[in-house]
Amino acid sequence: MTRNVIRSLLPWLDVVAIAAWGVLLLNYWLSEKLFLLIHPNYIGLTVAAGVLLLIVSGLKGLLLLRSSRSRQTFAPMQHMTLFPPGFGSLLMLAVAIAGLLITPRAFASQTALDRGVTDTITLTRVKPQSFRASTRTEDKTMIDWIRTLQVYPEPDAYTGQKVKVQGFVVYPPKLSEQYLLLTRFVITCCAADAYPVSLPVKLTTGDRKSYLPDSWLEIEGQMLTETLDGKRQLTIQAKTLKTIPEPKNPYNY
Amino acid sequence: MTQLNSAFTLFFSLLVEAIPFLLLGVLFSGLLQFFVDERRLLAILPKNPLLGAFAGSCIGFLFPVCECGNVPVARRMLMQGAPISVAIGFLLAAPTINPIVIWATWTAFRDQPEIVFLRVGFSLAIATIIGFIFSAQADLRPFLQSGVASALTLKQSQPSDLNQSPLLQSGTYFLGQSAKPLITDPSELQAAMMASVSKPKSFRLRLLLENTVQEMRELGGVLILGSAIAALVQVFVPRDIILSLGQSPVTSILAMMLLAGVVSICSTVDSFFALSFASTFTSGSLVAFLVFGPMIDLKGVGLMLSIFKPRAIFYLFALAAQLTFALTLFLNLYIS
Question: Where does the chain cross the membrane (chain A) (predicted)?
């Protein structure tokens, strides 16, 4: 008896599981959490997939309703090649619910250290498409600076230029208390391939203890060349440091 | 706690990125039935194992889906009696040999076009060779999961069923209490769809819907498990350790192949991922990443388990790994 009930409910589990994924994808989009997970280029694809999943689930539900009204029992057998009946749907449903309950969080300094933020060679995946020397240097974002450095790495070329960038704080383990790393994550497709880019910041007064790791800062100052950890590096000499809230879209592209 | 949260974010980012492709793949392979007569396609493919493997590798062009989507197609090919060489060639090459992936690779490596050609060339070569090797196995059933194997047995016992509707065969599916047959096994559904071309549109659409639901459920479950493993390994094994393995011609290739297997990134976007290593890693190792990743990775192995027994997957893995290693090492040592 109970087995029959379970069997008759299994098709509905599919409907609910697929709908849950549609809801999850659309929910990520509407609450703008999608920015934390994937590159904006793929947002359209995700939204379309969410809508499609809801359509598929709705159609399947409609069919089930119709067949139950005409007293037609559904085929009782499930031929799963891999999972026991209902396992796949149950797993999908459970994960979708977890996704709705737990808020994804942008990567922070621990991940940045894990992913080699302290390596001095910072590279970007997308090569600079255009290069304008006349751009006001204080309009450059973190990734603009890194790309510029990639094209022409000599730090002396930028000494004295004004700079205004945003990012979060990472404490570089090898540098003294006077320095911190202002860091952004860059993603090309999804958070799985996020990589950090950063510029060292030299504090003029006090030490880095007043700026906690992971706090977001907007730093204004001037570029100078420092020899850090045996390497000549472009460094920001900070004039003002302003604490800012974590941006809605914490990644750079 | 931070680690756990990172793993969670990674896990969902992989899923959110992969689910649309999975859906695209499932819908596409279902829709294909309306436009491409697979049996006719399989019939015109060369019977010679080597040519068959090559042809199988090339027909990826007809199916613009990445590795999440090629497994159901390959499984259906096998169940419809396609030679193993064709199915293996397709399984290994289709994620790479398709217009979207080649275009994405070209975008990423515009400065090094040789990477694009090497990726395509090596993938074709390796898929063809492995397809050819597998064709030496006369009876495939010990390699296959029972569902696929029994369909094959059926095929062998009824070798000339081309003109007979699979809907009329006994023992493959179930009749509901209405006159309409209702089938619940995805692969049988798909086989039945082949014969449904003359059926009314509503019936075909219903089969497409059933097929989509079944495949989403099954492949979605596997995708979730694969992504979970990939996310955990990525968070709890620091990338630095994986990367510090390699600057030399040999270890860089091994490191990138390991990374390809762990990250499980979809072949449509993996070239951007590889690009970040372009200046720190040898060209050979980049090509190894781009060739090996789409063939074998944690996520893909999970999906392949719906066709093959673990032993066959191990053979596939060993052959693909060795061939990729040998070809890219040659590249590192003698060409670049």
Answer: 12-30, 42-65, 86-107
